[in-house]
Automatic annotation (TrEMBL), chain A:
One of its GO terms (biological process) is fatty acid beta-oxidation using acyl-CoA dehydrogenase. Its cofactor is FAD. SUPFAM superfamilies: Adenine nucleotide alpha hydrolases-like (SSF52402), DHS-like NAD/FAD-binding domain (SSF52467). Heterodimer of an alpha and a beta subunit. The electron transfer flavoprotein serves as a specific electron acceptor for other dehydrogenases. It transfers the electrons to the main respiratory chain via ETF-ubiquinone oxidoreductase (ETF dehydrogenase). Binds 1 FAD per dimer. Residues 4-183 form the Electron transfer flavoprotein alpha/beta-subunit N-terminal domain. This is Electron transfer flavoprotein subunit alpha. It comes from Streptomyces rapamycinicus (strain ATCC 29253 / DSM 41530 / NRRL 5491 / AYB-994). InterPro entries: DHS-like_NAD/FAD-binding_dom (IPR029035), ETF_a/b_N (IPR014730), ETF_a/FixB (IPR001308), ETF_asu_C (IPR014731), ETF_asu_C_CS (IPR018206), Rossmann-like_a/b/a_fold (IPR014729). FAD binds at residues 208, 233-234, 247-251, 264-271, 285. It comes from the Bacteria. Belongs to the ETF alpha-subunit/FixB family. It holds the Pfam family ETF_alpha.
UniProtKB/TrEMBL annotation, chain B:
Pfam families: ETF (PF01012). This is Electron transfer flavoprotein subunit beta. The keyword Transport applies. Heterodimer of an alpha and a beta subunit. Keywords: Electron transport, Transport. Belongs to the ETF beta-subunit/FixA family. Residues 24-218 form the Electron transfer flavoprotein alpha/beta-subunit N-terminal domain. It comes from Streptomyces rapamycinicus (strain ATCC 29253 / DSM 41530 / NRRL 5491 / AYB-994).
Length: 320, 265
């Protein structure tokens, strides 16, 4: 039986949606075996089993929270040796990519990051990536070792698929380098009550055109009418109007929602890099020549202070 | 001995120009205008600031920039020298064409070890491959702490400190030296090279190293030595022109109609 190791992203036992998407991808390739680490690891088993995990390996130790990245690599290595999987899948994020890369080096495998699809092929797994601000689509393969592939959120639909989900404790021995980088303090991000940016089905973003921190409530009100997450361009973030954790683009989050609404955003290449794979793109901008209109399925040339409140009102009216 | 900073810099095709793939599906570097990856400018900037703060304490620091790339990659080194780095190493070898990230990290790690270092500073990602994993791989290979994706960095009394803004939390990190760090574009405004810096850069040495200087077998790198392969590269189809309307007072309503037609409301 071919098993595929899936690294679980969870917050105190609550499994994040991209992991459920990974399980759906893994089921195309074999039997998913999940690895959950840290506080609450045990609690992930139910959700993972509902989405197809045949086994759930769990390990908890203070090292996972107190030191950066390497303890998780040690655990993943231990899981890799226990399972001998045909492939390892995990979330493409800053930390996810780093863990994956160090694992790949240790097990003598190649790595593909930022995949937007993974399928079985004649010569092994075929990953799809987008390149150059999503202007190109690549297909690539790992040619040495068990493929280590990181996958972006929203690359597959999560699917219910009940499986055994048998919980197995995993013993992890930490190497010397595990305690090299200490986490001396941590501030959890405050929840806004809105969907997580990278996981959201709809993202409403604001840029320099919003003009002021105080005006961002216009963008937020539209987001709330649609149950959407709020994003921002780097110009808006650099001006201090919205937190950096909401930046969309090359050096911010990359999002791939069903619907992306860009308000007062010009559509610079670095911004496109983070949103071009959105399924439907809508733009409001007062400059008819703004490059964002080249990407838009529907665009309104106009003042966002007129257009957005009218849109929000219309949506709320239709809902009511 | 002076404090040794090594900055990794990558020569990349200009994002503002046409970026393409060559027939062998590697990045077309011949027909494209290249430059120092903008995100590596932040690494050079932080190295300069660390060196300057040591200078104020009367300690000496030396900044070496290193790149692995084709002949033109020297442009990236020159830019970093013009910003204020002291010395440059260019690893250049026919056999390197098509090297993937595992191979690139091997070559960089050997070059950094050979150059000697107390702290390596990298950018958060290169603007072409954009994997963002080279610094982590360097830490793994060099067996030193990984202080990556920092939006703030400082070095004091043999300790590196920094802040890392992750998906769900901000973390304050600390490690001993030697270490590998990477910095984000939130780490601080980048300086422009001064005229004096540009003139001085012309006189600064750029050493050229080949694979044999580093004791690396040509089979371990390049397209044939790669751990991954690209099978196809297709340009994303241009979107069929969307509808663009003038507001004229009912723009919000028309947008709502569009969203309704696509079943978003
Ligand atoms: C290395 C690097 C990394 C970067 N990473 C990112 C990144 O991750 N994300 C990112 O977004 N950018 C990034 N950038 C910056 C990027 O190049 C642009 O500067 C940025 O995206 C511009 O943001 P903007 O579109 O909000 O602002 P602008 O380009 O100033 O555009 C503002 C737009 O608002 C419109 N506008 C103004 N007022 C109104 C109004 N009342 N109603 C309607 N429209 C109005 C204007 O017509 C204009 O088109 C990066 C740059 C570099 C060099
Ligand atoms: C579109 C695209 C997709 C790719 N996908 C993959 C893949 O999935 N798997 C794979 O193995 N390879 C891949 N590669 C190849 C890989 O990007 C190169 O091997 C590259 O040199 C290292 O990765 P990076 O540019 O992504 O660096 P990153 O990890 O994004 O860069 C981090 C820092 O490392 C330093 N750095 C990176 N490369 C060099 C260099 N040559 N010289 C000096 N410093 C450097 C820079 O300081 C940079 O800021 C891809 C390349 C492209 C263009």
């Amino acid at each position: 039986m071919t098993e595929v190791l899936v690294y679980v992203d969870h917050v105190d036992g609550a499994v994040r949606k991209p992991t459920l998407e990974l399980l759906a991808l893994a089921r195309r390739l074999g039997d998913p075996v999940a690895l959950a680490l840290g506080s609450g690891a045990q609690d992930t088993a139910v959700a993972l089993a509902e989405h197809g995990a045949v086994r759930v390996l769990v390990a908890d130790a203070p090292e996972f929270a107190d030191y950066l990245v390497v303890p998780k690599v040690d655990a993943l290595r231990a899981a890799y040796e226990r399972v001998s999987p045909a492939a390892v899948l995990m979330l493409s994020s800053g930390e996810g990519n780093e863990i994956a890369a160090r694992l790949a080096l240790r097990i003598g495998s190649g790595i593909v990051t930022g995949a937007i699809d993974v399928r079985p092929g004649d010569d092994g797994l075929v990953a799809t990536q987008s390149a150059f601000a999503a202007a190109f689509t690549l297909t690539s393969r790992v040619t040495k070792g068990a493929p280590v592939i990181t996958v972006k959120p929203n690359s597959a639909a999560a699917e219910a698929a009940p499986a055994a989900g048998a919980v197995e404790p995993l013993a992890v021995t930490f190497g010397e380098s595990a305690t090299g980088t200490r986490v001396t303090a941590r501030t959890a991000r405050e929840s806004t009550g809105r969907p997580e940016l990278t996981e959201a089905a709809i993202v409403v973003s604001g840029g320099r055109g919003v003009g002021d921190a105080g005006n961002f409530h216009i963008v937020e009100a539209l987001a709330d009418s649609l149950g959407a997450a709020v994003g921002a361009s780097r110009a808006a973030v650099d001006a201090g109007w919205y937190p950096h954790s909401h930046q969309v683009g090359q050096t911010g989050k990359s999002v791939s929602p069903q619907l992306y609404i860009a308000n007062g955003i010009s559509g610079a290449i670095q911004h496109r890099a983070g949103m071009r794979t959105s399924k439907t793109i809508v733009a409001v901008n007062k400059d008819p020549d703004a490059p964002i209109f080249d990407l838009a399925d529907f665009g309104v040339v106009g003042d966002l202070f007129q257009v957005i409140p009218q849109l929000t009102e219309e949506i709320n009216a239709r809902k009511g | 001995m002076s404090f040794r900073l090594v900055v990794t810099v990558k020569y990349v095709p200009d994002a503002a120009a046409d970026r393409r793939f060559a027939d062998d599906l590697t990045v077309d570097r011949d027909d494209a205008d290249g430059l120092l990856s903008e995100l590596d400018e932040y690494a050079v900037e932080q190295a300069l600031r660390i060196a300057e703060s040591r200078g104020q304490n009367g300690d000496d620091a030396e900044i070496t920039v290193v790149t692995v790339g084709p002949r033109d990659a020297e442009d990236a080194l020159r830019k970093a020298l013009a910003m204020g780095a002291d010395r440059a190493i260019h690893v250049e070898d026919e056999a390197l064409h098509g090297t993937d990230v595992i191979g690139t990290s091997l070559v960089l790690a050997k070059a950094i070890e050979t150059a000697g270092y107390d702290l390596v500073v990298s950018g958060m990602a290169a603007t072409d491959g954009a994997m963002g994993v080279v610094p982590a791989l360097l830490a793994e290979r060099l067996r030193v702490p990984q202080m990556t994706l920092l939006s703030e960095i400082s070095v004091e009394d043999g300790t590196v400190r920094g802040r890392r803004d992750g998906d769900t939390a901000s973390e304050w990190l600390e490690s001993s030296l030697p270490a590998v760090a990477s910095v984000t574009d939130q780490s601080g405004e980048v300086r422009y090279p001064s005229f004096k810096g540009i003139m001085a850069a012309k006189k600064k040495p750029v050493e050229s190293w080949g694979l044999s200087d580093l004791g690396i077998d040509a089979d371990a790198v390049g397209l044939s030595g790669a751990w991954t392969t690209v099978d196809s590269a297709a340009e994303r189809p241009v979107r069929s022109a969307g509808t663009v309307v003038e507001d004229g007072g009912v723009g919000g309503k028309r947008l709502a109609e569009f969203l309704a037609s696509r079943k978003f409301i």
